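## Example record

The block below lists the input lines for one assembly entry, exactly as stored, with component labels intact.
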Amino acid sequence: MAFLKHKKESFNGGGLVLFDVVQPAMQAEKVLKKADYKVRLVAPPPELRKGCDLAVEINLVEQPGIERLLRQNGVDYVEVRPLKVDTSEILEIVRVVDFGDWVMVKAANMKLTFEKESGKIVNTSGGGCPDIPVMHAELLEKRVSEAPRPGDLGYTLCSLMLDRALEESLSLWEGGERP
Amino acid sequence: MMLIAGTVPIGDMPLTFGKASSEGDSLVVEGQRIPCTQGTGAMVSAALATTEYLKLEAPQVLLAGDVGQGRGSREIYEYLVENVAELEPEVLALHYWLPDMALTRRLCAAIEKCARRPVLIADAASMYSAKAAGVAEAFDIFTPDAAEMAFLADPDATHPAYVRFMLFNNMERMPELIESAYEHKNAARLLLVKGAVDYIVRDGEVLATVTEPDVPVMEAIGGTGDTITGMVSAFVYAGLEPHEAAIIAARANRMAGRVAEVTPATRVRRVIDHFPAVFTKYLCEWSGVCTTGGVE
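Predicted structure tokens for the full assembly:
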């Protein structure tokens, strides 16, 4: 009699957490699975090896939430990288658009707009991950200097880009982007 | 049936399936109140405003609470995989969720088993997951903005945060980005690229552009891209060809922004409030369909 074989659900998340040694890789897998993240232990491709032949594959979109959880649990990892080696580095550039009484700061697919006179955030737009409407509600009507950081609250790359936009807005505000 | 699926920012809201209605500034589905803000709330509200004007059946929606950790997203995927063949929507519009490539492929496989294939529309992260999973060509309509177009054009990127071609003046390079997206099979059959110039593209060919009225501050208002996707979905459901639906939605969104006299501080609900007046004044002229009872 043949054993019934359950079909294992495939997973390709597009991101790797890289480690120097094996032990924290296994610890990371345990911590992330306990938090209900879909992950798996894999061998990293040679060009991404950091000295350890184990990596944790993650859904790259969840990078910020995963990195925060690893830090909170004291898991020592080297970096998070896209699985495809030709993928570009994470975007660092931002663009500023002057709308007269307001300034819009764009970081990748995310935009944050604040009022020059008060520093109050009047809108956020762009993105498409589930935490973005949460960030929208959390940030509106708050001054850029007092707003919570999307990087601390969010879980996805969209929130990380919104954090970049807030960081630049703060820099503009503190640097005198006001009438 | 037009079915819209996506997450809403209410952490403990269970998976909910039902007909959307509006009450004041909120959406109501099966007794659950959903704010009309950036994301699925704005998209459904725009689709609902359009179906109400056209006197069509209101959108059916499949929503789940998700604040970014993916639970609600997975419930939506799983429900659709299990039930889409039985539900047989004529239009299936996918919106905010946590991208999951494996589940996206399973969903596309389930849709292929439908006796009558729905018109398949994706925006926001459901578009990200379709591209990253390599199933973009299974979709009929994508509605990216300029930054998302750079993502579709980059064959190696799995999220707009990691793109090679990111230039914030992407509109100038749009024909090149469009060509790359189609060349690498990362585009839906029809693209409506939202930006200073809206591009309507079918199978790589630019069919039309929309530039008027020019209301640049619309870009700052969270949800004004979602409203375009909601209108496109409703106009397709009404029987318009996808490219016609895209052109009219792009024009109507701009015109509503102008009539609402928007500033960067305007909320998207105020833009949606002006859709009926814009439809009354312009839909006949733009679509050639001039009855008040709906599109014939």
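The first helix of chain A runs from residue 22 to 34. Residues 62 and 156 of chain A are 5 Å apart (CA to CA).
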